[in-house]
Specification:
Elements (H helix, E strand, L loop, with lengths): L20 E7 L5 E10 L5 H4 L5 H11 L5 E7 L3 E8 L2 H9 L5 H11 L6 E10 L8 E4 L4 H4 L2 E3 L7 H6 L2
Antiparallel strand pairs: 1-6, 1-7, 2-4, 2-5, 3-4
Length: 173
């Protein structure tokens, strides 16, 4: 049984506002899910008019997804820098694909606009990677960390007994 319920994982709230969970914790590894990494890279810092219009699209999509849990977005985190990285957890690939292709959601119109206005310019780059993570093929540990990553998206429990070692956490025994 989980000792702490996961907090809402909108991907917008900075880590500095999350309380640290003292001790050693792990995320419940009984679920399969999709790990989706997506981001953009500013290739021409001196040309903000080429990349600044792209910046607000991801936060708007994350807010849309957080308001509609039935779409299958489970949560995630965002890191800012010259290369922006969004780590997202999804219920399954079908949910991710349905959101990406859905004309009634923010992604598809934003993607079409980017391709029309910026895709041919080397000033800004976008990328993504998709991983299907099967039950029993992943594990996690968080020591003196605020709820983070899978430990924020899925229920977390204190490490003791069978889950002291990575293999025990992965295998769930």
């Amino acid at each position: 049984m989980a000792d702490a319920a996961p907090e809402p994982a909108s991907g917008i709230r900075p880590d500095m506002f999350r309380a640290v969970r003292p001790g050693r914790w792990t995320a419940d590894s009984s679920e399969s899910f999709v790990l989706f990494l997506i981001g953009m890279r500013i290739n021409a810092l001196w040309k903000p008019w080429t990349w600044a219009p792209v910046l607000p699209t991801m936060p708007a999509m994350i807010r849309e997804l957080a308001r509609q849990p039935e779409l299958g977005y489970l949560g995630g985190d965002v890191w800012l820098g010259r290369t922006i990285l969004c780590v997202q957890y999804w219920k399954d690939f079908d949910s991710l694909e349905a959101y990406a292709r859905g004309a009634d959601h923010l992604h598809l119109p934003a993607w079409r606009k980017f391709n029309r206005l910026r895709a041919s310019s080397p000033d800004v780059g976008v990328w993504h990677e998709t991983y299907e993570i099967k039950r029993g093929n992943w594990e996690s540990i968080y020591v003196n960390m605020p709820p983070f990553g899978a430990g924020r998206v899925f229920p977390a429990s204190r490490i003791s007994g069978y889950n002291e070692a990575a293999r025990g956490r992965r295998d769930g025994r």
